[in-house]
Amino acid sequence: MNVNHDDCASMADLAPAAALGALDPDEAAFLRAHLATCVRPHLELREAMALAATIGAACPDEDRPSPALRTRLLDAARADAAREVRL
Ligand SMILES: [Zn+2]
Q1: 81: closest CA among 8, 3, 1?
Q2: What is the predicted pLDDT for the residue at 39?
Q3: Which among 8, 18, 24, 47 is least buried, having the fewest CB atoms inside 10 angstroms?
Q4: 53 CA distance to ligand 1 middle (Å)
Q5: Are 7 and 38 in contact (CB under 8 A)?
Q6: How many angstroms is it from 74 CA to the middle of ligand 1?
Q7: Model confidence pLDDT, tens digit, residues 22-41
């Protein structure tokens, strides 16, 4: 199997948005296709999902983060991923 490691780096970039359901359809398709073929566990994706679940659990459905807060969370999560994930 030929694994493209540039794609692995892209996964780290997409993880925060994926966890928050903020991917566009092309990104979501790329992510699914990559996970189906990549041999790496991509723990950053699982960690981002866990973080998003924690945020979601802390916010009642009628009190979702505002778009501005969501953007800040995404930016913070991306910065975090960029700092911690070096593939
Ligand atoms: Zn990968």
Answers
A1: 8
A2: 92
A3: 24
A4: 22
A5: yes
A6: 21
A7: 999 999 999 999 999 999 99
Cβ-Cβ contacts under 8 Å for 5 (sequence gap 6 or more) = 87
> How does residue 85 score in pLDDT terms, banded at 50, 70 and 90?
low
Distance 3 CA to ligand 1 centre (A): 7
In whole angstroms, what is the distance from residue 81 CA to residue 7 CA?
15
**Residues in Cβ contact with 4 at an 8 Å cutoff, skipping those fewer than 6 apart:** none
- Which tokens belong to 68? 């501005």
- Distance of alpha carbon 6 from alpha carbon 15, whole angstroms: 14
Q: Give the Å distance between the CA of 45 and the centre of ligand 1.
A: 10
Model pTM? 0.58
- Which of 65, 64, 4 lies closest to 34 in space, CA to CA? 4
Structural tokens at position 75: 């930016």
Q: What's the whole-number average pLDDT of the chain?
A: 82
